[in-house]
Amino acid sequence: MLRKQCQSHRGSFKKALWRNFSQLSVLGKTAFLLNNIFYFICRHHDLTAWCLPQNMAQEGLRSLFSSIGEAESARLIRSYVTAKDAEGAINTLSGLRLQSKAIKVSYARASSEAIKDADLYISGLPRTMTQKDVEGMFSRFGRITNSRVLVDQTTGLSRGVAFVRFDKRSEAEGAITSVNGHKPPGSPEPITLKFAANPNQNKNVALPSQLYHSPARRFGGPVHHQAQRFGFSPMGVDHMSGLSGVNVRGNASSGWCIFIYNLGQDADEGILWQMFGPFGAVTNVKVIRDFNTNKCKGFGFVTMTNYEEAAMAIASLNGYRLGGKILQVSFKTNKSHK
DNA sequence: TGCGATT
């Protein structure tokens, strides 16, 4: 029955996507996408969506959630003010398969010390263990809120590495104390448990010269590391620390603004989401149109949260051929006050 | 060769 519901919502999701298209920017202040995790800032019932497809951006998600209920406009998202609606979104959308990934929807938890750093990195697991097996192995230490087994990109086989997030740090500590260095039943190898690296610590800020010399990711290529980034309070992230004095092109406190030139007359926001989404967290896209004709004036902007991802997108998409035109992609500059 | 913003 739930499956049937999902199918029908999947259909309405597509329609909602286009219906809501003109109101995308409304979303900027009520919800956002960061490291592939979608956050709703709802007044009474915050929700968090996990494991999103790489190229699904905020307008898609907003539309998706709008499809629970009437889905008439962007503002409806903010109106998950009843527990019933929030629960309906969780029940209907969690587990929904989108582009071969199952999304997970749950209530967002208020940030607190007790739930911080509760994510474990586990290696040396038998390659035969599935995500379910791993959860079974660790469930006795506490409530598991998220887990995943890493697989080899080419073979699809387990790498013997998993992430398991517990509800509380104390539970994760209990698992380390009891299991670290022990051999699972029937396995010759001991497993290693440690706290997963927090992406806000040891932030590795690559310089532009390093970035541009690294192999450019092909357009459309997935960003495999994204889904592993958990465990931070999204509102408090300071992406600029460590970058001051290095390079501030295109930077704004809200992200890195990218300028795209040579778009066709009929370019739309959807193509920008599709092009930039695979490189990382995109918070906003805009196609600049003539007010009277509503045709694209040949350029647009994309805002990305993380410098590295923005630089990679630029390096990869600059020169990309779209609709018979060669795109020019760079950080936005201030041409106006010249 | 072009760098916005109509909540």
Automatic annotation (TrEMBL):
Annotated Gene Ontology cellular component terms: ribonucleoprotein complex
Family annotation (CDD domains): RRM3_HuR
InterPro entries referenced in this protein's UniProt entry, alphabetically: Hud_Sxl_RNA (IPR002343), Nucleotide-bd_a/b_plait_sf (IPR012677), RBD_domain_sf (IPR035979), RRM_dom (IPR000504)
GO molecular function: RNA binding
Domain of life: Eukaryota
Pfam families in UniProt: RRM_1
Domain RRM: 45-110, 118-198, 256-334
Keywords: Repeat, RNA-binding
Similarity remark: Belongs to the RRM elav family.
Name this protein carries in UniProt: (raccoon dog) hypothetical protein
Organism encoding this protein: Nyctereutes procyonoides (Raccoon dog)
High-level lineage: Eukaryota, Metazoa, Chordata, Craniata, Vertebrata
